[in-house]
Structure prediction request, 228 residues.
Amino acid sequence: QVQLVESGGGLVKPGGSLRLSCAASGFTFSDSYMSWIRQAPGKGLEWVSLISTGSTYTNYADSVKGRFTISRDNAKNSLYLQMNSLRAEDTAVYYCARSETGYEYFQHWGQGTLVTVSS
Amino acid sequence: EIVLTQSPATLSLSPGERATLSCRASQSVSSYLAWYQQKPGQAPSLLIYDASNRATGIPARFSGSGSGTDFTLTISSLEPEDFAVYYCQQRSNWPPLYTFGQGTKLEIK
Prediction:
């Protein structure tokens, strides 16, 4: 079955950097658009970034543009999110999510990894 | 950017009752709307896509309807496991930008 397992979260100071990873299994990773979605404590869902199957297209929410970079390694079935210049408002659980054909929706989600930005 | 507004923010009902949740879009999204369920401490899971299609394994008591700007998620007879937070979601055409509603918390009365 489809599995998405995030890692790399933790406590980081404002202005610091962190790299999240998502290990995928149970499906053809290279055929799927992938996204990162976050959820601040006690708040709703916010889409962060999207990457196409061959990494030719990426897109970002305005709130992270210029600070975050999404990437993938299809040979390793892995998705990444490099987060720089972190702010307190980036504190959230970060989920990786898979989109099927058409990439309108998020059919599968990982369990999430918590990023805390605090001094 | 399309804004999704969900109502009510909180809905208090008893098991066996019918639940009706609303999602309104600031402009037409045709039928490209999804609903997700999130239980405490868990990731969201897809319930309904394309406004009215149940995702794999979703019970028939869940149904979605609507098109354009007004959408409804209906749970015909609430089971104890249905008490959770529900989000609607859409994707703009190009560039692809995704937005979620702010959520409706369905709680036990």
Summary: Residues 108 and 114 of chain A are 18 Å apart (CA to CA). The first strand of chain A starts at residue 3 and ends at 7.
